[in-house]
TrEMBL record:
It comes from the Eukaryota. Belongs to the PC-esterase family. TBL subfamily. Residues 1-268 form the Trichome birefringence-like C-terminal domain. Transmembrane segments: none annotated. It holds the Pfam family PC-Esterase. This is Trichome birefringence-like C-terminal domain-containing protein. It comes from Penstemon davidsonii.
């Protein structure tokens, strides 16, 4: 089961596409839902699932279709409502990142309601959430049976000036990767959060494998869905496609593409344990 945000759903979709090449026609079924989507493979008595929990913990924006970016409030010590759905999976692949990047602070509930909240610096709130996540895994998931993974942050390519193209329109029209690997990239990725994840996994003593996909993905400015995407369930109109500066999706990835590489890395970790 993949647990996280829409980028993790992107990786789940990639995994399903990869698996379909080895599944006989008519031997698999889809069930797309919210928060749970399931790809079931009858022949192998197996499911590959995605559970929507963009902050991992509970928030007032857990409905994938009905939420407000500016009003997002998290409850960092509350996770069991989500966790009960994924605690018995054989393999768990978590992520949480992109919903943290709308501001430098995060609204954090003072209790169980959303009426009173504090605005906390992003890394501090992130650590509180991952500490809750780690404790839940330790106390509720049999980690001697279940293999758990944490996927690092997926970069965006919204600012073409980051790869020295002052006239570019974000990722729109990009057809080649960044080829200069001698200079460290600056794509606006908050690597503090990656360090927080490393520290929590280490200090809480949980057997979770961190899979770092960040740097390799930063070079792929050409690999996003760009104007060939959907908004609110619909393909972009001709007018929207003509305005890539506003409508190009430089967050999600084309398939086949970069998420396939992430899954090859995940698969390598899985088979190395068998």
């Amino acid at each position: 089961m993949f647990v996280g945000d829409s980028v993790n759903r992107n990786q789940w979709e990639s995994m399903v596409c990869l698996l379909q090449t080895a599944i006989a026609p008519g031997k698999a079924t889809w069930k797309i839902g919210a928060p749970l989507s399931v790809f079931a493979v009858e022949e192998y008595n197996t499911t590959v699932e995605f559970y929507w929990a963009p902050f991992l913990v509970e928030s007032n924006s857990d409905d994938p279709r009905n939420h407000s970016i500016s009003q997002r409030i998290i409850t960092p010590e509350s996770i069991s409502k989500h966790g009960i759905h994924w605690k018995d999976a054989d393999f768990l692949a978590f992520n949480t990142y992109i919903w943290w990047m709308n501001s430098h602070t995060i609204k954090v509930s003072r209790g169980s309601s959303d009426v009173e909240y504090d605005e906390i610096e992003r890394p501090i709130a992130y650590e509180r959430v991952l500490t809750t996540w780690a404790k839940y895994l330790k106390n509720n998931v049999n980690l001697s049976r279940t293999s758990a993974f944490f996927i690092s942050m997926s970069p965006v390519h919204q600012e073409s000036s980051n790869w020295n193209d002052q006239d570019g329109l974000a990722c729109a029209g990009e057809t080649t990767p960044i080829m200069n690997t001698s200079v460290a990239l600056e794509m606006g990725t908050d690597r503090q959060l990656l360090q927080v994840a490393r520290n929590v996994i280490k200090t809480k003593g949980i057997p979770v494998t961190l899979i770092d996909i960040t740097t390799l993905s930063e070079y792929r400015k050409d690999a996003h869905t760009s104007i060939y995407t959907i908004r609110q369930g619909k393909l972009l109109t001709h007018e929207q496609k003509a305005d890539p500066a506003k409508f190009a999706d430089c967050l999600h990835w084309c398939l086949p593409g970069v998420p396939d590489t992430w899954n090859e890395m995940l698969y390598a970790h899985i088979i190395s344990r068998s």
